[in-house]
């Protein structure tokens, strides 16, 4: 499947997390430890915010570890909120429009997982996408379909409720086709002001997802680590798997839950699909 990370906090260069830590996202593209596949070489993408305008996006179809343009961009760009994703295809084509993150206006979205037997229910799912949103669908992945279904169900107003309705819709359509346990997902989405994360699977056995402890605690645990002293207390990381072996630095996102990261504080809550 895939690996991804979200960074939010003091502006940094993405190379700090993509290249410079022990188990960076680039290292995970070749040596993932917790994913379904060790290699994640079917494309990559990065999305970043640098103000109130819509986020920038850079995507490529080759392996992330060999892309010189990604390295150049990550070395010179600075952002206080960015997404990065390395892809392992679950069957759809390796093409730029299938690489994450996906963007609609100020929103970014990325996903690890799958809709089981997506090819069998793709048409029925697409019919639930709002007509004004449908022309913006560019690729052929289940991940992008989930994004536009969530947008259709109100992502811009209430992300947790919209994602719950999206999952409920997918599970209902799948059941009508005799498909059991169709949804496997860890998802990150943002409007540039807040970040929402989701961990859920229909079978109750979701792919891995972790978040960093508060910076104050990390400074106490690792007083010699310069990065923990450079960034502010509001800095957070959410990752498919930890970026290195720092005991006590990471906590696992609970099964069937969602989180919100915002300026006023963070929260974790239970996630349950809503039948539609």
TrEMBL record:
PROSITE patterns: GATASE_TYPE_2. CDD domains: YafJ (cd01908). Pfam families: GATase_4. The keyword Signal does not apply. Residues 2-264 form the Glutamine amidotransferase type-2 domain. It comes from the Bacteria. Keywords: Glutamine amidotransferase. InterPro entries: EgtC-like (IPR026869), Gamma-glu_amide_hydrolase (IPR052373), GATase_2_dom (IPR017932), Ntn_hydrolases_N (IPR029055). This is Class II glutamine amidotransferase.
């Amino acid at each position: 499947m895939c690996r991804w990370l979200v960074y939010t906090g003091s502006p940094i260069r993405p190379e700090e997390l993509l290249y410079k830590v022990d188990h960076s996202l680039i290292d995970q593209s070749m040596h993932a430890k917790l994913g379904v596949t060790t290699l994640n070489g079917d494309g990559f993408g990065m999305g970043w915010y640098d103000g109130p305008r819509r986020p920038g996006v850079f995507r490529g179809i080759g392996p992330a570890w060999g892309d010189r343009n990604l390295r150049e961009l990550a070395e010179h760009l600075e952002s206080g909120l960015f997404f990065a994703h390395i892809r392992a295809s679950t069957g759809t084509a390796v093409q730029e429009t299938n690489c994450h993150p996906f963007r609609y206006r100020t929103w970014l979205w990325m996903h690890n997982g799958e809709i089981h037997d997506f090819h069998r229910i793709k048409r029925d799912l697409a019919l639930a996408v709002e007509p004004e949103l449908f022309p913006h669908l560019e690729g052929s992945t289940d991940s992008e379909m989930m994004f536009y279904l969530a947008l259709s169900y109100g992502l811009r107003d209430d992300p947790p409720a919209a994602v719950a309705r999206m999952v409920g819709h997918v599970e209902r359509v799948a059941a009508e086709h005799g498909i059991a346990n169709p949804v496997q997902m860890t998802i990150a989405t943002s409007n540039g002001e807040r970040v929402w994360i989701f961990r859920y699977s229909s079978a109750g056995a979701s792919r891995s997802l972790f978040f960093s402890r508060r910076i104050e605690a990390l400074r106490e645990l690792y007083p010699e680590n310069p990065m923990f002293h450079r960034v502010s207390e509001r800095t957070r990381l959410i990752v498919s798997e930890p970026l290195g072996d720092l005991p006590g630095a990471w906590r696992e996102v609970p099964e069937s839950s969602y989180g919100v990261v915002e300026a006023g504080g963070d929260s974790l809550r239970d996630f349950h699909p809503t039948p539609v």
